[in-house]
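Fold this complex.
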Amino acid sequence: MITSIDNKILIAHLLRRAGFGCTYDQIEKLSLMEYDDVVDLLINPEYGPPKDQDLLDRYFIASVEARTARHADPQWTWRLAKSEKQLEEKIALFWHGLLAVGGIKLDHGLAMLEEIDLFRKYGLGKFGTLLLKISEDPGMMYWLDNQNSHKDAPNENYGRELLELFSMGIDENGEGSYTEDDVKTAARAFTGWASRPTPPPFFLGPFPMEFSFDKSDHDNTEKTFLGEKGNFNGNDIVNMVAKHPSTAKFICKRLYLYFVSETEDWDEINKLSEVFLKNNGEIKKVLEAMFKSEHFKSRDIRFKKVKSPSDLVFGISRLVDKYKIPNLDSAELAINTLLMGQFLMNPPSVEGWHEGEEWIDSGSLIERINYASTEISNTSSYGVKRIIEIIKETNISEPNDLINRTLETLGYIDITEKTKEMIKDHLRKNKFTNKEDKILDVLKIIVSTPDFQYC
Amino acid sequence: MSKQKNLVVIQLSGGNDYLNTIVPYETGLYYDYRPNMGLKDNSIIPIDNKIAFNSNIDFFKKTFDDQNLAIMMGIGYPEPNRSHFRSMDIWHTAKPFESSSIGWLGRTVKNIDPKGLNPITAVNFGKGLPRALACPGVSVASVGALESYGLFTGVSGAQNREILLDTVDRIYQPMNRDGVPSLRLLETGRGALDGADLLSEAPNNYSSDVEYPEDNPIAQSLKGIAQVASARLGTRIFYAQHGSFDTHTDELKNHSLLLKQLSVAIDCFQRDLIKQKLDDETVIWIFSEFGRRIADNGTGTDHGSGGVAFLLGNRVKGGLYGEYPNLEPSAQLEGDVHYNTDFRTIYSTILEDVLDVDSENILDEKFTKLSILNS
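Structure:
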């Protein structure tokens, strides 16, 4: 029997993983639904620009036809911090890290934003479609040099990364279920795939690019790929790769590591791969199975995953509900994740980011603590006012109750007993002139704990 | 007697214009290519009958005359990349041909202090860690301003801050917690807290009559370095950045200002080091991710390849190293100067003769080091 409080705890957990977390009031509202219905809601976002798109464009004019990747920042960070379609942003971030294209080379803000939007649009659909769209993406073609791949001189970069990093993967010994010849064939099949500039909409700024196919530069001969013979084009390669069992395993492993746990559990990953194969690689079906599984909901999974800088920054900014309209401060959000080691729209390499404990070094931990403790105690933010109000409404006198209530208002989070004891000590040892100061101290300490670095 | 030496890195971010830093004032081609921006007369201080310092770095001239400045001419790497990010990455990781997220100095810290006993073996001044210092499991302090460094710097009231710090400090005590939070995270927390403690104490015992100009950011960073160095906390690598040298427009004005700031800052720093009796153990390394185009674009210059770098200090054997690149069209690389010294030869020299580590361990390759440092 699921009690109402258990339902809240589970929904809060779901939203921290499938999104960036919720406020107390949002959880109250969502918990009127069954957990499974909340999953269904999350995995079926209606694609389209948000209601406040015009507002954002007006405040950040330079980001609309963004010249550089940096100009594009406000367009994405605003949605990471505000969008109600949380999974749509979270999955875009996932694909941005897996089908990674870096601003280090593609310093073209418009192309970068188009790519992020492609991840929103196709990121929960069939993997084959997504892989085809990204293979046609001008930014990706430039990043992995497919522009320079010609019929008489194929460049193997895209063919190789497509198989190794984007779909079939390799094991710890560097072995894949494809051969060097398959890489060469893939490269040949993608010759002639290029992009061309379209007229620029403004006087300044880069030319928007579009996909082009040059038939005369395409290797139009018979090829052998994964043991099959045919006059394959890039589409055929994508189709064959997308339905391969190795791809199902590789993508499900990456989804598992991103959404569930940093420790690979192959029983669970294999179950997900079966769902992947049975549903023609439809990602939302995999996520549905994942989020509804007892494994995902179990206690062992909660608060064991290190928050990425984005989890931390956008989690806090959602919790404190600071931004009613876009302002300069909201544009700084990208700087905050950067200082913590995640340079959005510029993953360090085609491999994306190394997740987990590698996020945290002494410099980034200081940034995390200073950012979180400053924001959570800024009483001019609407969300902070609300947190204090909720805690004050509850009639509590014991330190233990105060701490527990605070944890609930922060989205039903958990800390270890030892940490709790030390906060109790803090409350006992020190005198507070009023209740609000006491609450603010508890808030500041909780977001500074090692426990808070997990979600 | 050989005393342990420390390294101070000054990164000139944005691509410092080689030709207007060390000016080939007897080469007619230079003035042909730089009709609007060729430096002459009072704007230069001759080094010999071919090349001259930009007059804004007059302190460099003084150190050169004292034979404590080594000028690395035509420094770079094969297949130059003209993207700031990529080129800076190459200098940071010392890997021209592959993408890596581990910095050469981060690896060095791991080599010097494998157990991570000193959280401030390397200290970076500035926000955000440069990739040069990044390495998994290595603790590097990254300081905005020394006075306000540490946790809860935004909390009002010193007493409140102390109380909070005390509690958080106790929460990060490594003890058995069944895996979560992990020991590694707790130890990182300890490193951060201890490093912050050590560093915030450093200015207390520092006194100096050298006045670093307040409105000169690189001077302020070097002041912070002098404060930490004088506290002798075992820091071997200091890192600071100056810029932006990305002078596509208005170069004469902007480049002059940046060089002047640099020259004044190093002048202050060197005088301070003498006062602190640190001048014999400090070596300054100054580099940029690339030089700029030979031809100007009207009021500025665009991204180029092949640049100039400097080693400076009492232990440095001053002089000119490498050759000034030839500006003849036939000798150019797509409008840029060719490099003639691989920067990794200087890295290997710094690693072995300043930081006392095996350079091959860090660079994964053996380079013939130069004889630039007196032991």
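Chain A has 25 helices and four strands.
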